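Q: What would this chain look like folded?
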Amino acid sequence: MEGSARILALVKLASVGLILIWGFAVTFVFVRVLPIAEFQAFLLLVAFGNFTISAEFGVTSIIYARLRRHWLGDGIPDDGGFRLEEMGVLFLFLGLLIAGGALILLGALATGLLKTQMPLLFLLFFFSACLNLPGLLAKRALAAIDGNFLWEALDCGRRIITIGLLLAILYGMDPRLSVALQLAVSILIIGWAIGHVHRRLDMRARHWFAFRVGSGHVRAHYLRDIGASAAFTMSDIIAYNAPYFTIAMATGQARPMLIFDFFFKASRSLSMLVRAVVEAALPRITRAYHAGDTIRLRQLLVRATGAALLFAVALSVLLLVAGEWLFAQLFDGRASIDRADIILIVIALLGLTILCVSVYVQSALGHFSYLLARSLPFLAGSLASVPLAMLLWPARFDLAFLCFYAVTMVGVALLHLVSLKRLARL
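A: My prediction, written as structure tokens:
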């Protein structure tokens, strides 16, 4: 099954479907059990959680690229090749990142910057979300050693259980208990996956704690990629998540925030579908690239891009036909969305598709400096969209913002399309 791109794509799509159901279920459940002011604060918590998860600076992508080269090279070591001690150092880094995010969240709760009457719920949800960091490390490591199918099977099981626990809140379960149980389930399953990586790579306990050796190797061989990857990741984090905070500063109205959250969920849904298609093709793409098989590489890139665009078109049709109803159902009728807003969201999603294909492929190949250069226009456009909208059309702030954001997304997509064409000619 691991060797079949079609089966692997189907399994990954099933996993993505469960992730999407979970993501929408979070909004569906909490918008109904929290007062609207608490829910707005909860959206900021979700944005901060996304920020923390994304702030791994792309190190899991780096280790995928390095471990994949190591695995395809039959494990033959070289001076700059992958070392098992790197895993322990990266795991420690991710743990420190979660701890740092938790301290910031505690500070925001203590000072009243994030106002809530349910701080324990917020903390538990934050930790539950941040477990995706070690989960991402396990996923990328397993993918590099041809363990895609195993991870997706484990993750599907985890998602089914956590969705059930989430929906149980609507039937009377205490939200804190539900999230705590979701946290426990994730720890068990992600821990088992990391244990499998440990066994597959024939690691020993000392490899996880050899921080001096591992950090020395990371400093010697990661710094260039980490610098470019960190800058690229931070640029993307801000570009995707900044509107949550800039909209909150620009207006106290709930509707613009809910419209952007709707767009964010649609874009996240599409990006995960695109990732599933691209990741199913990555084993062949990386083999063709490292073998210098340009013809095969071009074929695979065209197929992956075409499949991604099919998902974009399907999602666009769904939004055009039922977007207003979906918005009303998702947010319990607390706001409405216009047809013009939906059209702009569709335009932005089509641009996002090309952007995602390029980012996922080039990250797997380790082209982080190239991605950084392509991310800066997106960052500039995202940061400028809210103030430009307030300045030029404050009466229809939501529409103006989406217009600027969509134009930015399409412009960046054209840059990435050029990048993909150049990659196919290597």
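DSSP finds 16 helices and no strands in the chain.
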